[in-house]
Structure formats: structure tokens, C-alpha cells
Amino acid sequence: DRVVPASKKFIMEKMGVKYVNAVAYSLEKIFDDLPKNSPVFFILSPGADPTKDVEILARKRGFTRDNGKVLIYSLGQGQEPLAERALDTAYQQGGWVVLQNIHLTPK
Predict the structure, then answer these.
(1) Which residue intervals of the chain are DSSP H helices?
(2) Are 63 and 70 in contact (CB under 8 A)?
(3) Burial class of residue 89 in the structure, from the number of CB atoms within 10 Å of its CB (0-12 exposed, 13-18 middle, 19+ buried)
(4) How far apart are the first and last CA of the chain?
């Protein structure tokens, strides 16, 4: 519980306050700046969930769950083989795969 506040204090003292203040991000800008086959990783704080924002952006670009171009897996409950197949398919045919709780997967 004390790691985050202590880390913030250390970073503020050594690097400055601008490195600890939350920055508003534009998911659309992030995706526009990346190569199409580049993965995006979100390192989240408790309670944060960008899934809806990702789905909204995907829909704008023609990717939906309905057309099979957006697949979402929560790992740690035996979903790993399905997620691996989804990643292969998305890589070959185009699509987005959202992997949640990757810290729970044994690989």
C-alpha cells in the first residue's frame, strides 16, 4: 500500500512533479502513432479499465466483437489456449485482441 506513494515521492524529488501527474491521453492518437502490428500494453492502477475505450475506438475503425475483429479474454481461467489462437488469427487476418489479467497466466 505504501509503494505507490513512496515511488511518487521519489520520482518527484529526483525528476520533477511532471512525471507523477496523470496525463490525459488520447487512445486514438496513441493508435495512430503506432505501426499497425505493434502491441499496446496498459499498465493499470486498481480500478482502471480501458476496455470500453478500446472497444469504442475499435468500432470507429470497423472492428467489433460482432464481426470477430475484437476478441477479449480474461486470462488465468484456462483461457490461454483460446487467447493464443486469437492472437494468431488476428495477426494473420487483422483484428484486435485484448488480454486482461495477463499477470495470472503461468507462461
Answers:
(1) 3-14, 27-33, 51-60, 80-93
(2) yes
(3) middle
(4) 27
- Residue type, position 11, single letter: I
CA neighbor of 38 nearest in space, from 107, 86, 91, 88: 91
Q: Which residues pair with 73 in a beta bridge?
A: 99
Per-residue pLDDT of the chain (107 residues; tens, 9 = 90+): 788 889 999 999 999 998 888 777 788 998 899 898 888 888 777 788 889 999 999 999 999 999 999 999 999 888 999 999 999 999 999 999 999 988 888 76
Q: What's this model's pTM, rounded to 2 decimal places?
A: 0.72
Task: Residue 58: name the closest of 43, 74, 72, 48 by CA.
Answer: 72
